Predict the structure.
Amino acid sequence: MNERPRSDAHGEIQGTAPAATATESASLPRWLSEQLLQGHREVLIEHEGTLYRLRQTRNGKLILNK
């Protein structure tokens, strides 16, 4: 059978994220992870006086911890 996607109470289809428009994507700054990490596996990022640790895992994923 052809089952329709379910929507939540707000009318959004479950399991999907809202897509960014081309305008939104073009206006946001973009950095390559290599630019942030500069050859390191971990870097510290200070934001409003708090330090965060950005770490690249063995599988190549990024994790940001407070």
Remarks:
- The first strand starts at residue 42 and ends at 47.
- The mean pLDDT is 85.
